[in-house]
Amino acid sequence: MKERGNNVLNLSQRLLALARLVPQGSRVADIGTDHAFLPCYLVKEGIASFVIGVDVHEGPYQAACRTVRAYNVAEQVEIRRGDGLTALMPGEVDVVIIAGMGGSTGRDILENSPQVVEKLKKMIFQPMNGADVVRRWLSEHNWVITGEDIIYEDKRLFVVIAAEKGERTALTEEEIHYGPLLIKMRHPLLQEVLQKDIEAMQEILKQLAKSQNQESRVKVNEFTRKIHMAKGLQEWLFAAKQ
């Protein structure tokens, strides 16, 4: 819930989880900023020194501009209409937040602006799906995952990932799909993520069973393997509680 009252911003738990990962004094870009609640919160709370909110659509862009005016933070928050990181110049910001979109979209945003990515110190993601796509890209491009969390809000599970530059870190398939830090800390919501994935993949298998072509058989093998991996991780988490 995001409200304006006594000039105080009340962020959702999902956005607060992102804010907690922003280093003090950073210059930040929020990609897909929507109403710009997060940029305004970051500067009003003294977390970020400057924030650029970017949105590709006219409606959210105008809404973001109104929010900035309402909270009187125009000197520290700039709203731009643009596509991903193409709205930024290399070195303009230290931290980029890419939240509320699919993992494949987030990856494409990074791929389209390598010069901007090169100058970043930290990236923070909240993919609506495809967290494995984000983790795989990070692993292959010398970014180390330094923070992960799972947030339950509005009857949904949201995964948050933070990464900083470092030496290439090889991740196992389990870590790519379910997070090296989430697994290491045995996050209390990881069981729910696994169960949700297993049920979704089992439903896909039912649909694939109706087809007998070669492509479907390949996908059956792929999803069967992924279900086996997820169930194995479930069993490990359960055993750790005993």
Q: TL;DR of this structure?
A:
The protein has 242 residues and is an alpha/beta fold. Helices cover 46% and strands 24% of the residues.
Question: Could you give the topology of this structure?
Answer:
Layout: E1 4-5, E2 8-9, H1 13-20, E3 26-31, H2 37-44, E4 48-55, H3 58-70, E5 77-81, E6 95-101, H4 103-111, H5 114-118, E7 122-127, H6 131-140, E8 143-153, E9 156-165, H7 173-178, H8 180-184, H9 190-208, H10 214-241
Parallel strand pairs: 3-4, 3-6, 4-5, 6-7
Antiparallel strand pairs: 1-2, 7-9, 8-9
Helix pairs in contact: 4-6, 9-10
Architecture overview:
- This protein has 242 residues and is an alpha/beta fold.
- It folds into 2 domains: 4-177, 3-Layer(aba) Sandwich (Rossmann fold), CATH 3.40.50; 190-241.
- Helices cover 46% and strands 24% of the residues.
- It has helices at 13-20, 37-44, 58-70, 103-111, 114-118, 131-140, 173-178, 180-184, 190-208, 214-241; strands at 4-5, 8-9, 26-31, 48-55, 77-81, 95-101, 122-127, 143-153, 156-165.
- The strands form 2 sheets. A 7-stranded mixed beta sheet has the order 5-4-3-6-7-9-8, sandwiched between helices. It has a two-stranded antiparallel sheet with strand order 1-2.
- A hairpin with a 2-residue loop joins strand 1 (4-5) and strand 2 (8-9).
- The model is unreliable at 1-6 (pLDDT under 50).
- Keywords: Methyltransferase, Transferase.
- One of its GO terms (biological process) is methylation.
- InterPro entries: SAM-dependent_MTases_sf, TrmK.
- One of its GO terms (molecular function) is tRNA (adenine(22)-N1)-methyltransferase activity.
